[in-house]
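Problem: given the chain below (238 residues), write out its structure.
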Amino acid sequence: MIALAVAALLSAGPAPGRPFKYAYKSKYAQVDFSWSSEAAAVPALVKRFHAELRKQKADTIAGGKQESSFRPGIGWESSTKITTSGESPRLLSLSRTYWAFTGGAHGNGRTTGLLWDRKLRKEISFASLFSSQSGYGRVLRAPYCQALDRERVKRRGGDGKLNNGIGEFDSCPKFLDLAFIPADSDRDGRFDRIHLIAPPYLAGPYAEGDYDIALPVTAPLIQLMKSQYRLSFEAQRQ
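Solution.
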């Protein structure tokens, strides 16, 4: 029993820290910044996020003051929200949503992923999970493009047609332009979904918002991974 308990402790991730939330508001600027308890358990990430918060606040205030000098009453706003999409003993997957208003017709934002390797103690790219850093495209490309088109049809009236009139809004985006975020939907310590997220203007017009396409993790995808990462993922039935 003691041996089993020790093994469980060794395989578990670090204990969660305290989630962080910051809010600032003045006549020139409004700033929000937060991160999850799982992110707070990684000192290197906490240091990094505090530095980013300081820069985001300074830039937003400076821009707001300049904006207010020729458009009284109009300031700048910025918001960063970092949430946990899933974790395994080896990997922590974070989703980072950034939004900013800088005096234009509307605000703009983007969601990106942050994948932290606890053993290496550093951020790694999604591509670095694989033996060939471009090989995963052979498994994910066709399912992604098909799922994206189905979602586009829904958002554009469900008439079975695309033809939005702007070529890039009907084509399938390059993978280099997307955020790849592994997710653990049932919170069992293994990733079962990959979210591919296209920001506004990439897969559709601004009014259509982000396109967040979640694809199931499959056995062929896991086979393409480096051996040290395979146990962090679980294949889903097709």
